[in-house]
């Protein structure tokens, strides 16, 4: 059977070989920081300088990293895929965007950054979002609203992920669901595989090691993303 409606979910594992740290590894981001100190609205209200500094450092780090073979394989796949193609990433880096920008124009590339984007800032008063490639000051004034200030455009713990309507619709119509480089520790993304199964999709996991939800996948391939993703993508029809 030809599978035409494709949903791909990526996590920090896909960017690991580009030099972006994952979250839950021994040397991962959450080992050096408590989530409650840097990744919640309460933390930002309590100590904006600490929170802005955490994201300023991560934003600066992005300048020196490049998309890898796994990002490029997905951008190439999008360019030739004849059905619905939706790439959902939990990553706040811009490596999928850059891989896509470096790919010759193709059929269409729909990307949702469900946990936000490091290179954007959001006004606390109006919710408006703008590009923000540099540092954010502890109380960066907002260009959108006199009472607002700018925060990182990041979905913190306790906040609603972005693009959920579109993601739910795609999952409900999904024929093939592929999860790449995510531990399956954080919902709602960790539940997407179950939703895809309910829709009758074939489910595939590509990860360095079995994720928490590994048993929900019809097929699992374990190895570094730069190896397993290009091979898997190469086996899919155009
Ligand atoms: N290739 C493939 N997978 C890899 C690689 C690699 N080179 N390196 C690590 N991995 C896998 C790990 O084995 C792990 O299962 O990537 C996964 C990363 O898991 P986490 O560190 O939990 O990161 P992620 O799943 O992206 O976290 C989800 O949690 O804290 C929040 O908002 C944050 O978006 C993040 C969310």
Automatic annotation (TrEMBL):
The record's subcellular location field reads: Cytoplasm
Does the record carry Metal-binding as a key word?
A: no
Coiled-coil regions listed in the entry:
none
One Pfam family named in its UniProt record: SIR2
Q: Which residues form the signal peptide?
A: none
GO molecular function ontology, one term from the record: protein-malonyllysine demalonylase activity
Reactions mediated catalytically: N(6)-succinyl-L-lysyl-[protein] + NAD(+) + H2O = 2''-O-succinyl-ADP-D-ribose + nicotinamide + L-lysyl-[protein]; N(6)-acetyl-L-lysyl-[protein] + NAD(+) + H2O = 2''-O-acetyl-ADP-D-ribose + nicotinamide + L-lysyl-[protein]
Tell me the domain of life. Bacteria
Q: Which residues bind substrate?
A: 55, 58
- In the UniProt entry, which residues are flagged as the active site? 115 (proton acceptor)
Protein name (record): NAD-dependent protein deacylase
Q: Which organism is it from?
A: Brevundimonas viscosa
Q: Which gene encodes it?
A: cobB
